[in-house]
């Protein structure tokens, strides 16, 4: 089973420290971990540090995987300038780091990723011609199709309508449950985090100020302190925890 643990991890741009001294419990395959925090808290920077795109102090410990590329990443920006169809772009993402010869299994994985995200009908479209939400789903498919042990997604639902938000998060939940992937997902919608994530990490000014089971992290006290909103958390008729925001303070 894949595991990921951060030990005193920091990251900086030039001389500006952004992420500072982050230590987490050992997360493992099967978990969905929400990465939370206000704008500029350092969520994307932490993803880049985990991916090795940024250097810094501390250790990113990944074990329990034989994959050559155990981590796939869906960035926040999903610009699509290449002249490729959706199908080609997802296949290209699949083939990164694999042998050049496309096998039937690769095509099957492309079909599966497109179908899981309900975008099979877009396969022949040029990615440059898509709407923002369609592009975001293609970007998610490009990450999913790699079948990583660890999947990191930076605000994957920000351009999606409500149905597609819930569908994408449901797909992520299933990937964790059925394929034992470890999913780490940055979210601004704390209601989504309460509903889909097992654990949450709350960043503020580059520091980890809370980490643990989602309902222990997303509390009225922390919401007032970090997000400056008055909010209640109550179960709905189906027993799912809901976030009700009263006002900004
Ligand atoms: N390439 C860069 N060079 C210098 N500073 C950067 C760079 N990218 C981000 N920053 C700064 O690092 C800080 C953290 O940014 P980051 O993108 O990690 O935050 P975030 O939590 O992902 O924010 P958001 O929720 O707004 O996407 C911000 O102050 C930002 O201005």
From TrEMBL:
- Domain (ABC transporter): give its ranges: 4-230
Query: InterPro entries in the record, alphabetically?
Result: AAA+_ATPase, ABC_transporter-like_ATP-bd, Metal_Ion_Import_ABC, P-loop_NTPase
Q: Which residues form a coiled coil?
A: none
What Gene Ontology terms describe what this protein does at the molecular function level? ATP binding; ATP hydrolysis activity
Top-rank lineage group of the source organism: Bacteria
What keywords is this UniProt entry annotated with?
ATP-binding, Nucleotide-binding, Transport
Q: What is this protein's record name?
A: ABC transporter ATP-binding protein
Whose protein is this, by species? Answer: Vreelandella salicampi
Lineage runs: Bacteria, Pseudomonadati, Pseudomonadota, Gammaproteobacteria, Oceanospirillales
């Amino acid at each position: 089973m894949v595991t990921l643990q951060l030990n005193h991890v920091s990251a900086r741009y030039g001389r500006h420290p952004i992420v500072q001294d982050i230590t987490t419990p050992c997360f493992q395959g099967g978990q969905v971990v929400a990465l939370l925090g206000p704008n500029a808290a350092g969520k994307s920077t932490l993803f880049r540090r985990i991916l090795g795109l940024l250097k810094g102090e501390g250790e990113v410990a990944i074990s329990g995987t034989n994959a050559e590329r155990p981590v796939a990443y869906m960035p926040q920006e999903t610009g699509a300038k290449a002249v490729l169809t959706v199908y080609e772009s997802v296949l290209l993402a699949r083939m990164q780091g694999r042998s050049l010869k496309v096998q039937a299994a690769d095509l099957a994985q492309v079909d599966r990723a497109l179908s899981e995200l309900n975008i099979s009908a877009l396969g022949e479209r040029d990615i440059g011609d898509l709407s923002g939400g369609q592009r975001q789903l293609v970007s998610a498919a490009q990450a999913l199709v790699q079948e990583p042990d660890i999947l990191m997604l930076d605000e994957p639902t920000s351009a999606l309508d409500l149905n597609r938000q819930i569908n994408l998060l449901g797909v992520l939940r299933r990937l964790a449950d059925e394929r034992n992937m470890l999913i780490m997902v940055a979210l601004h919608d704390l209601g989504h985090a309460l509903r889909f994530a097992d654990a949450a990490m709350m960043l503020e000014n580059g520091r980890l100020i809370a980490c643990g089971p989602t309902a222990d992290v997303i509390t009225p006290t922390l919401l007032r302190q970090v997000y400056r909103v008055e909010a209640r958390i109550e179960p709905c008729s189906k027993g799912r925890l809901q976030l009700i925001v009263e006002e900004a303070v």
